[in-house]
Design brief:
The complex is a heterodimer of chains A (247) and B (255). Chain A is mainly α and 247 residues long. Chain A has 9 helices and no strands. By secondary structure, chain B is an alpha/beta fold. In chain B, helix 3 crosses helix 4, helix 4 packs across helix 5 and helix 6 packs parallel to helix 7. In chain B, a hairpin with a 2-residue loop joins strand 1 and strand 2. The chains are: A mainly alpha (247), B alpha/beta (255).
Chain lengths: 247, 255
């Protein structure tokens, strides 16, 4: 019952978020700030994670390939498909749920408990639209960029690991990466990313905006935001995979 | 002038405000006083629309705020300035940007005009030249003054101050009180101050509403509150030993 109530409140929040901004100039300015805050600032962690995960995927695949019937380029192919289909869109989104989600929830939550949101409302500003819409827009614009960046680095990491370990050659790895490439998988991955980006920012904003109490409650809201957006990502991942790959 | 008619408010089935009727006069500092937890802040938040009253009407110069939709309320709110208990400055903006914010958001003033208005407001609260400070670099008293500067930036018709002296030393409190009184008289605005500070009551209380157990218990001015015989008011006014001493001195003088 409480979950249903929360969901209803979340939908009502979104109906207020998606209204015309008071001033477009402020909206664009905030959107660019948010792209920097939640997008560009996430580049280092995404780069680090992607390079190492790509390397590990490639090494694990190479180590478990014992059958001589499997062609050499299989390692490149598996690295490519697991990166595009699952690792970059889903795992990176889960990492971003932790980094961006807690940041958004604690920022908005702190504004709530220090009455900054009340101050906006008193001035006549639609605080939800003012605070949340630029964050959602920034996520929708920049998360796909992060995921494409992650895909490239993951495959680069795989190549580097295989080369250093002398398990394959560059030509064979590239052949593997290009083998059976399905462009629809990129559409699928980017669609997932857009949905995940929206879920992370909107759910985290929801927990931050409706926080009550003090700093402890902001911390609690931040944790709840990360947990809930991670669960939402996993559920959405399952539904989108059913809808886009199997139907 | 703000009229409050039969306003009630409950939280989770617990009634906090009981049919409050009151008029906050223009050009005067109207105080809402009472002990903590009696409903002062709830009443003020109902008036400005941060809480929705369960029943009753709130009229801003005969305009019924309770029946307005979000857009109409937004227009009225541009006529309201509010100083929050913790100042509620936007901590990612400088002092100057805080003051400029409502002007940039709601007016069509040029950059130069906005700058001039912000400078004027900061000068009015004796903060000229502090434009580039961040809120975290300001003392409590300075933050309150920036809050006042931001509240008056749009030339409001109504000014709300929620415990403007909380956390301030007595000397700074007097500065803030004087500022509120001067601005009220200068711009002929309707000012509503929520406080439980007796110094403020005696300093600026033109018109006082005493709330007790969510009900309107008493109204009067700073002169009449001293002689009020109501036991709840007496225990509030003469709660400190300093005030008790003053009372005994006054009584001795009268004899």
């Amino acid at each position: 019952m409480k979950l249903l109530q929360q969901f209803g409140r979340y939908i009502l929040m979104l109906s207020v978020v998606f209204t015309r901004p008071n001033r477009w100039r402020f909206f664009w300015k905030h959107t660019f700030l948010e792209i920097d805050q939640i997008g560009i600032n996430s580049l280092p962690i995404v780069a680090l994670m992607s390079t190492f995960m790509g390397a590990v995927i490639a090494l694990q695949t190479a180590s478990s390939m014992e059958s001589p019937l499997l062609p050499d380029y299989t390692v490149g192919f598996i690295t490519q498909s697991s990166t595009i289909l699952e690792f970059s869109p889903t795992i990176i989104s889960l990492i971003l749920a932790g980094k961006v989600g807690s940041n958004v929830a604690s920022e908005i939550g702190t504004m709530r408990v220090t009455e900054q949101i009340d101050a906006l409302e008193i001035m006549g500003v639609n605080s939800l639209n003012f605070l949340v819409l630029p964050k959602i827009t920034a996520a929708l614009v920049f998360f796909p960029v992060l995921v494409v960046f992650s895909m490239a680095l993951s495959m680069f990491g795989g190549w580097l690991a295989l080369l250093v370990s002398d398990l394959t050659t560059t030509e064979i790895y590239i052949l593997g990466i290009r083998s059976f490439f399905n462009p629809f998988h990129i559409t699928y991955a980017l669609t997932k990313t857009l949905v995940f980006g929206f879920l992370i920012v909107s759910i985290s904003s929801f927990y931050g905006y409706y926080v009550k109490g003090g700093s402890l409650d902001v911390g609690r809201a931040s944790t709840q935001a990360v947990v809930s957006s991670s669960v939402a990502i996993l559920i959405a991942n399952f539904i989108l995979t059913q809808l886009m790959l199997l139907s | 002038m703000i009229e409050v008619k039969q306003v009630s408010k409950s939280f989770n089935g617990q009634k906090v405000l009981f049919d409050i009727d009151h008029v906050f006069e223009e050009g005067q500092v109207n105080l809402i006083i009472g002990q903590s937890g009696q409903g002062k802040s709830v009443l003020a938040k109902c008036i400005v629309g941060l809480y929705e009253a369960d029943a009753g009407q709130i009229l801003f110069d005969k305009r019924n705020f309770t029946e307005m939709d979000r857009n109409e309320r937004s227009n009225i709110r541009q006529e309201i300035g509010m100083l929050f208990q913790g100042a509620a400055l936007f901590d990612s903006m400088t002092v100057e940007q805080n003051v400029m914010f409502p002007l940039q958001m709601f007016t069509k003033m040029t950059k130069a005009e906005i700058q001039a208005r912000a400078d004027f407001c900061l000068d009015r609260v004796n903060l000229a030249g502090r434009n580039k400070l961040m809120p975290s670099e300001c003392s409590g008293g300075m933050q309150k003054r920036v809050g006042i500067a931001r509240a008056i930036a749009m030339n409001p018709r109504y000014l709300f101050c929620d415990e403007p002296n909380s956390g301030l030393d007595p000397k700074t409190s007097i500065v803030i009180d004087k500022l509120i009184r001067d601005i009220t008289q200068e711009y002929k605005i309707t000012t509503v101050v929520i406080t439980h500070d007796m110094n403020s009551v005696m300093e600026i209380g033109d018109h006082i509403l005493f709330i007790h157990q969510g009900k309107k218990w008493w109204e009067g001015d700073r002169h009449s509150i001293i002689n009020a015989t109501n036991p709840e008011i007496e225990s509030f006014v003469y709660a400190s030993s300093f005030m008790k001493e003053i009372r005994s001195l006054l009584q001795k003088k009268a004899q």
